[in-house]
Amino acid sequence: MIRLKKLLILFVSVAFVFSCSTEDPNNPKNGGIDRTANLKTLGASATDLLSDVNFTSMNIEIVYVENNKPTDEAISKFKSFLQNRTYKPDGIRITLRSVASSGKAPFNIDEIVEIEKEERTAYNAGDEIAVWIYFADGSNDKDNDEKFILGSAFRNTSMVVYEKTIKEFSSRHGAPSRAIMEAATLNHEFGHLFGLVDLGTEPVSAHEDSENEGHCITDGCLMRASIEFGSGVVDVISGSGVPELDDACIQDLQSVGGK
Predict the structure, then answer these.
(1) How confident is the model at residue 72 (pLDDT cuts 50, 70, 90)?
(2) 61-72: buried (b, 16+ CB within 10 Å) or exposed (e) per residue?
């Protein structure tokens, strides 16, 4: 989440300090995987995700807890969103696999970070950039009766979707379908990976919501805070469609290499 950005910056700083040690298993010289490119702050890889300057393909690893697999419809809509906004001539690959429950729900972001350490296998390699997405079997520990969190982007190529919360909310009378809520959450959180709004990608025009850091002020925009926090998601998602980015957000992405 946005309000945990400073905490995560501290975490990343610590990670870089330890990467200097010769004992570090992530050091390629020690036969490990160099993970440092995927341990940066939120929005730091916006241009790499959007353009084909450094990376011509994208590998998205979706890890879901058993019985919390995202719907095929949501994945299809999510991939279309990425294809419409990014330049990846060698393609966007999405793989899904199930894992056992961590037993840690409800989650704070530090626990999600620990799960990523254990379960993530996809990292940047050559001209392919990698993203990790976790579909959790629980809720965020800061949920309350007035606000609940559907997803969180927490590093440059990392995000979590609280699938249990989505399934519970989508079962309510008049709520959007599970597939639409999943797709809206995936697209919204990836928007944060793209640096929206003013999270690493400098806005071309003033459109950040002053009351909700990192979100757009335009009614109906995909980057409205209501999608991430769920309390007003019914007002944002109408019918069977997933909200689109408004012109201001699209211009921001185009300014750093996107479509």
Answers:
(1) very high
(2) bbbbbeebbbee
Residues whose CB is less than 8 angstroms from the CB of residue 208 and which lie 6 or more positions away in sequence, other chains included: 197, 198, 214, 215, 216, 217
Per-residue confidence band for 193, with pLDDT thresholds at 50, 70 and 90: very high
In degrees rounded to 5, what are phi and psi of residue 111? -70, -35
Indicate whether 143 pLDDT > 70: yes
pLDDT-based confidence at residue 235 (cuts at 50, 70, 90): low
**178 phi/psi in degrees, rounded to 5:** -60, -45
Number of Cβ within 10 Å of residue 164's Cβ equals 19
Sequential DSSP letters for 59-127? EEEEEEETT-PPPHHHHHHHHHHHHHH---TT-EEEEEEEE---S-PSBPHHHHHHHHHHH-----BTT
CA-based nearest residue to 16, from 7, 26, 6: 26
Q: What is the pLDDT of residue 12?
A: 33
Number of folded domains that form the chain: 1
Please tell me the predicted confidence (pLDDT) of residue 26: 45
Q: Report the pLDDT value the prediction gives residue 236, as an integer from 0 to 100.
A: 60
CATH code, domain carrying 104: 3.40.390.10
- Can you give the residue range of the structural domain that contains 120? 2-255
C-alpha to C-alpha distances, 173 to 6, 165, 170, 176, 231, nearest whole angstrom? 38, 15, 8, 9, 15
Q: 95 pairs with which residues across the strands?
A: 61
Query: Whose structure tokens read 């809520």?
Result: 181
- Please provide the distance, in angstroms rounded to a whole number, between the alpha carbons at the two ends of the chain: 26
- DSSP at 213: T
